[in-house]
Write a structure and sequence with these properties.
Elements lengths: L1 H17 L16 H15 L8 E2 L5 E3 L3 E8 L14 H4 L8 H10 L5 E8 L10 H13 L1
Parallel strand pairs: 3-4
Antiparallel strand pairs: 1-2, 2-3
């Protein structure tokens, strides 16, 4: 069930990217979308493509996405490079800043720990890399998983 969720979200992001709809004045494709915009599009895509699997799916404040009685999801984007191709300053903080009250994925873990619903909880980290990677984000994701397990 968890792998199905990951696969469905990955396919939704690929479909959104293939649409080539630009976000504001940035390059075409999914890369420049902000977290709220991407989450909204992913939610719509999951509802449209996999409606029965994600019945009642909707965006919320906490969690970012709720699939009633199934999933409470928080999303985080990790984007080492800006639309201009220049490495973004402090990009890793989106994942690892380990203090309550910030907008990191660690803070999302803390939010989900306080969430009272019956749903399974997950943090979905969407990472953007070049092909081949200029910065390998797998180390950052591994560190995030280690810190998250300590909570």
């Amino acid at each position: 069930m968890q792998q199905q969720l990951v696969d469905d979200i990955a396919n939704a992001i690929k479909d959104i990217d293939r649409s080539r709809v630009p976000f504001k004045r940035f390059q075409r494709g999914v890369g420049p979308y902000g977290e709220p915009q991407l989450v909204k599009l992913v939610t719509q895509q999951l509802s449209t493509t996999y409606g029965q699997r994600y019945e009642g799916i909707r965006t919320r404040r906490v969690p970012d996405v709720l699939v009633p009685n199934r999933w409470a999801l928080e999303f985080k984007i990790v984007r080492p490079f800006g639309d201009n191709g220049i490495e973004a300053e402090h990009w890793s903080q989106n994942l690892l800043h380990p203090y309550p009250g910030n907008v990191s994925a660690i803070a999302d873990v803390l939010k989900l720990m306080r969430y009272q619903g019956p749903e399974q909880r997950a943090v979905i980290v969407v990472c953007y890399e070049h092909d081949p990677p200029k910065i390998d984000v797998s180390l950052l994701v591994s560190v995030f998983e280690l810190i998250s397990c300590q909570h």
